[in-house]
Amino acid sequence: MQQGTLMRKVKSKSWKKQRFFKLQDDCMTIWYESKRTGKIESAFSISDVETVREGHQSEVLQSLAEEFPPERCFTIVFYGRRGNLDLIAGSAEEAQCWIQGLHQLIEPRSFPLTPALVSRTWIRDWFQKADKNKDGRMNFKEVQRLLKMMNVDMNEDHALRLFQAADKSESGTLEGEEFVLFYKALTQREEVLSLFQEYSEDGKKLTLLELVDFLRHEQLEDEGTEELAMELIDKYEPSETARARHVLSADGFLMYLCSPEGSIFNPRHRALWQDMTQPLCHYFISSSHNTYLIEDQIRGQSSIEGYIRALKRGCRCLEVDCWDGPNGEPMVYHGHTFTSKIPFREVVSTLGKPSWGNSSSPPPLMGMSPPSSRPQRVPGDSKSRGGDGHPKVLTSPSPTPQELKHKILLKGKKIGRLEDTLDGPGDEASNVSDDDNGAEAEEERRRAQVGGTQHGPALQKDKESLAQALSDCVIYCKSVSFRGFQEARSHSRPFEISSFAEAKARKLIRDAGNEFVHHNTWQLTRIYPSGMRTDSSNYNPQEMWNVGCQIVALNFQTAGTEMDLCDGLFSQNGRCGYVLKPPFMRDKETLFNPSDPGSWEGPGPTTLTIQVISGQQLPKVDNSKEGAVIDPLVRVEIHGVPADQAHQETKYIENNGFNPRWDETLQFQLHVPKLALVRFVVEDYDKTSRNDFVGQFTLAFANIKPGYRHIHLLSKDGTSIPPSSLFVHICITE
Q1: With 0-12 CB in 10 A as exposed, 13-18 as middle and 19+ as buried, what is 438?
Q2: Residue 231: which pLDDT band, with cuts at 50, 70 and 90?
Q3: Which among 545, 537, 17 has a CA at the least distance from the CA of 295?
Q4: How confident is the model at residue 177 (pLDDT cuts 50, 70, 90)?
Q5: 523 and 569 part of one domain
């Protein structure tokens, strides 16, 4: 990589330019130059890279699949809204060299670095940013520039003292290890050191017994504590001598607190930890709306990148709106609008890739079927169809995610009943989309009687508009119109599903909350955004989850609180996109009503107490003025049933985004904690206008680990922003 590689930079099927790519000696910067002119065209930092995708995992590279094998192709994905960089290497070996090298460079950023063992790469990155004249040394003026870049408004005298203490050579500049000393002094964590000394008898180390004492009393680790203490020492103690003596230094203690084991998110819940053998309707399912769109709903771009991003994010219910295109080729786009179009075959090719699962046991992917197209061929494979080519039908009327593993389900309209699928064509169909405003009225007209039969031209038109082969693929998610909870109980089946616009769902929640919860214990429900949301904004998914709606479809391309809640709920259970609903939402006799928790004989209120202690290296606000330093505050929000909705915030700290100290305690009463999500938000206070967003982290209450914990912040787009974090103490009492 450091010698440089000649690769093709690709922007479209016809735009393929050879560029010379090289990783700079700092191991933090990659630049590329034109082969023709030799001029450097662009450069980017490793810290800007979110991930690297292998093979044809972009729309552009998929369009070149016949020309270039996947072994030579990869995509560099950047944080935020910067476009991806699609590359084609000269050989599979060169591609792997870059892919593996980039992975090694970006993986250490998963959790914040500590002062004791701060990454040389990270230090080098800060040094280069501050070394304005690029002479490999840092004078005091450049140190002041660095402090501003790091979001620190430090007194000049104090900054000078730190500088002189690190300048061992008394040269008036810092270089090499001197800069490391300066950085360590700058990142000293007094609040962590005082906590360490509380449990350390000599103030220099924690013995094995002292560490066990801390883990039991503060972190509430009650099982295998001695074994855990030994593991933490072996994993995080930097000194070989200390490890041999089974003790933990202050540096090792800080490394533990900044690690996954010291995170607020219970590490055991990161893996697939829930029962996956319940009926499908017993799970919340990560779901997207008009997945193919990456912008607005009227003129936005349709792209397979929308599917790739959603799948990478753990989404398991995708929408494919398929319409007739030229020469009988089905196209995917938002019908009756000006959105661009993508071929149906490219979409199904993307969905068919086996690498989308975020878990060793990925549950099924649910696709929304085409509303009114006549594709010439419906794709299928041996995993989803029987040996005779027909769709597989499991014996259970409501199969489980475990049974459906590695299958693809289609949700959509169907010609006839499920029972008729294996015996011959039936007599019921509709040619309207779920999201069509007239869908329910049309369905009412077509189904005046439950199980009624249609005859004549109307039936023939329906059969023509919906391909029989496609209809046969709809097994467990047959779309039906909703005509009331009582009629659904009398006539509907577990393998059927109804869709509601957000406004109708809210009305049902308001008028019949308990009946809605009942309905969702045995049948799937899908909620979709209002047609008025042409800007691809989102509704609040929490109120839909409160009544047990499983498929709450959101516009994944739009960042905001709603997607933070979605990511927060589905960040658990191996990020497989399925979360088991609480027991009282799976019980068909439940009395639970989210609007009236008192009517439900659940446990008493739970008290959540959060001490917000400090923040570390909070990022600057986008588009802020040079030299500006943020005034951070922390707001904690509870999202759950109406009685639990609340928020509280700390005071703001003036001019310190580097290491602000709040030491404030916030307290909440939760009546239904099993449905609650907790969102931590950092904002830059502004007394004259709306506060600016800095970072956030959202998780389900059930995944909170009590004790002294770090919260690793995410950007507005849901990507990590290391090493930005909050340090808190969590106490939960019932």
Answers
A1: exposed
A2: very high
A3: 537
A4: confident
A5: yes
Q: Which domain holds residue 624?
A: 603-733
* Rounded Cα distance, 700 and 265, in Å: 9
Return the number of other C-beta atoms located less than 10 Å from residue 303's C-beta.
Answer: 22
Q: What are the structure tokens assigned to 241, written together?
A: 């001598």
334 given a catalytic annotation: yes
Backbone angles phi, psi at 186, to 5 degrees: -70, -35
491 is catalytic: no
693-714: buried (b, 16+ CB within 10 Å) or exposed (e) per residue? bbbbbbbbbebbbbbbbbbbbb
H helices of 38-119, where?
59-63, 92-106
Q: Give the CATH number, domain containing residue 229.
A: 1.10.238.10
Q: Is residue 680 part of a domain?
A: yes
Hey, what amino acid is at 253? F
Task: Quote the tokens at residue 684.
Answer: 């830059």
How far is the first Cα of the chain from the last one, in angstroms, to the nearest whole number?
56
Task: Write phi, then psi, for 476 (nearest 5 degrees).
Answer: -100, 0
| 170/184 Cα distance (integer angstroms) | 18
Of 56, 289, 519, 712, which is the active-site residue? 289
Task: Give the best-scoring range by mean pLDDT among 71-80, 282-291, 333-342, 343-352.
Answer: 282-291
**Amino acid identity, residue 92?**
A
Q: What pLDDT does 302 receive? A: 93
| CATH code (residue 90) | 2.30.29.30
> Which tokens is 387 given?
């040996």
- The pLDDT confidence band at residue 151, using thresholds 50, 70 and 90, is low
Burial class (CB in 10 A: 0-12, 13-18, 19+), 339: buried
Residue reference for tokens 């398929």: 322
* Whether the Cβ atoms of residue 316 and residue 401 lie closer than 8 Å to each other: no
**Which residue is associated with the tokens 């690690």?**
259
Domain total in the chain: 5
Q: Which residues contact 48 (CB under 8 A, 6 or more apart)?
A: 78, 79, 82
Cα 183 to Cα 479: distance, rounded to the nearest angstrom: 60
- pLDDT of 350 > 90? The answer is no
Question: Does 414 share its domain with 524?
Answer: yes
Q: What is the pLDDT of residues 651-693, one digit of tens each?
A: 999 988 888 999 999 999 999 999 999 999 999 999 999 999 9
Q: Which amino acid is at 678?
A: V
Of the residues 56, 269, 282, 334, only one is catalytic, namely: 334
pTM: 0.83
Mean pLDDT of 173-185: 80
Q: What angle do CA 357, 51, 575 make, to 5 degrees?
A: 30
Tokens of 540: 């609040």
Confidence of residue 354 (pLDDT cuts 50, 70, 90): low
Q: What is the pLDDT of residue 114?
A: 43
Residues pairing with 594 in the sheet: none
Chain centre to alpha carbon of residue 320: 21
Q: Do 181 and 203 reside in the same domain of the chain? A: no
Taking alpha carbons only, the member of 476, 372, 377, 472 closest to residue 416 is: 472
Burial letters for 662-683: b for 16+ Cβ neighbours within 10 Å, e otherwise? Answer: beeebebebbbbbbbbbbbbbb
In this prediction, residues 595-619 reach a mean pLDDT of 88
